[in-house]
Amino acid sequence: MATQLNDISLIINNNPVAYEADSLKWRDGFGEYSCRNAVVGGGQTLKIFSKDLKSKFGMVSFALPSTAESEALKREFKINNDQNTIELIGPEGLNFSKTFTQACLTTDPETSAAVDGQIECEFSTDPAV
Amino acid sequence: MTDTNYILKKPFSYAYKGDMQNAEFITLKEPSYKQIDKVALIKQDFMTAIEHMQSSSLNAIQSIDVQDSLTIIQDDEDPQAESKELSITAKEAMQSLYMSPVKMDAFFVRCQELFRSGVALVDGETKLTMPMIEKMSIDDFELMSGKYIVNFILPSLTDGMEESI
User: Fold this and answer.
1) Predicted local distance difference test score (pLDDT) of residue A15
2) Minimal Cα–Cα distance from B93 to chain A, Å?
3) Is B131 close to A14, i.e. CB distance below 8 A?
4) Does A107 reach chain B within 8 Å, measured CB to CB?
5) Max CA distance (Å), chain A
6) DSSP for residue B101
7) Would residue A63 count as lying in a domain?
8) Is the confidence at residue A83, as pLDDT, over 50?
9) Cβ neighbours of residue B119 under 8 Å, at least 6 residues apart?
10) Which is nearest to A86 in space by CA: A3, A29, A26?
């Protein structure tokens, strides 16, 4: 039996962060790969593989509930520029953990002042370790 | 009482300025009134341990004999008095607690709350948080708790006794 990864601890700058259920997403930051064919002639082709290094960065996104604490966190993340560190730690026994360093909140997150209001945060980071 | 450093036996990684780095030591700072609710309980636990040591005549740690400490404090001419009074090590402090009826699980939760309140700084700069504590080895946490008792709780206990004489 396998366990779905939906109970992950989100730790940013050594502090646990409470986020909206099912909102956490991440990209490891392998970058995009591309394959194309070069023409050899006579119907023959040669596959050319390349790594798009400019897309080689990680991403972590999640939504915070719109609270005063979240507002303070959002501000802290933004002020830290690219000096945030994000750790994702799975439930005990799963042996799952990822660390994203040099994380930067690229967007200017919007806060929704609604009953179920959220603050969407998206970080661009170094590739996950 | 001055700040003291606890050198970690097993360094753990923590976030520092956008990167992960290994913690080498933890600076322990003197508690203030802000921490009184946490310090009072730890002090009470340690007093229970001392009392238990005395009553069970297991004086494995003679230097923490309360009566001796009181006598020594009054004897200003004895140059070794103060050092003898404070000669208990972090390990001995923890041993005395373990041998007493103090509930150690609750004791460690109290220590954890105290350290998280701002009296413990990783590498002298970054506030110790729960995720960091969870990365620490048990030995390190125990000895750090013992060191805090020896440096900040024990002297404050004996100071209080001196005044009451």
Assistant:
1) 95
2) 30
3) yes
4) no
5) 68
6) S
7) yes
8) yes
9) B28, B29, B30, B31, B35, B148
10) A26
Does the complex come out with an ipTM higher than 0.90?
Answer: no
Q: Give B101→chain A minimum CA distance, Å.
A: 31
Q: Which residues 6+ apart lie within 8 Å of A107 measured at CB?
A: A120, A121, A122
Say which CATH number the domain at A60 has: 2.40.30
Nearest CA in chain A to B116: A15
Kindly list the residues from chain B whose CB atom is less than 8 angstroms away from the CB atom of residue A128: none
pLDDT confidence band for A109 (50 / 70 / 90):
very high
Helices (H), ranges, chain B: 36-55, 66-74, 81-85, 90-98, 104-114, 130-135, 138-148, 154-164
| pTM for this prediction | 0.78
**A–B CB contacts, 8 A cutoff, strictly below:** 40
Would the CB atoms of A16 and B15 count as touching at under 8 Å? no
Residue A4 lies in a domain: no
Q: Does B18 touch chain A (CB under 8 A)?
A: yes
Number of domains in chain A: 1
Question: Over pLDDT 70: what percentage of chain A?
Answer: 100
Domain with A37 in it: 9-125
Q: How far apart are CA B53 and CA B66, in angstroms?
A: 10
The owner of tokens 């701002």 is B118
